[in-house]
Amino acid sequence: MTVIQPVNVPQPVKLTIEQFRMLDDSGAFDGYAKTELIEGAIYAMNAQYAGHAVAKSRLARRLGNALEQLGAELDAVVEGTVEMPPASAPEPDIALARVAPGERSYIALSAVALVVEVSDASVAFDLKDKAQLYSGQGVPEYWVLDLNSSQLHQFWEPSPAGYGEGRTLPVGGSFQSVTIPGLAVESDGLI
Questions:
Q1: Alpha helices for 88-176 (secondary structure H)
Q2: By CB count within 10 A, which of 2, 50, 97, 166 is most buried?
Q3: Considering the chain, what is the average pLDDT of its residues?
Q4: Are 153 and 116 in contact (CB under 8 A)?
């Protein structure tokens, strides 16, 4: 039997991944362009502008081609939901992950090697909240392609306290992964 304790001050309700999935499956988010579960809270994201979509598509294609040339067992998955128990299910713009074709579940956290967020309006959120989430969950490498400043923010060495290492690179040169040997993509024409 569940006992409900009285609350004197309003408290936010934090959802689990299973509750989020049930709401999503029921169509509760159909009126939104995109939703994510971050630390138990649902975030509705704006529709994407053309520049954001083009940069994401170009980068995903380049990453996918580079992975294929390396013979890596990773795919560049666009907007796949990543399961981060117990209460997060973000939908990064691009996740380099091992996913079986036809798999009917969220992407397992253990399958993720690198996550990319393409940012314009959400730069501050991506550099702070999302970086803390991904680092705390042990995502080996995290990239934020900042469309406003034409830079890539790259982070690695995750810990619960945040990423231990990082650098900022200008768009126009080569972006090289620190954690995936040999993975590099040219960034000319992304933005």
A1: 123-125, 131-136
A2: 97
A3: 91
A4: no
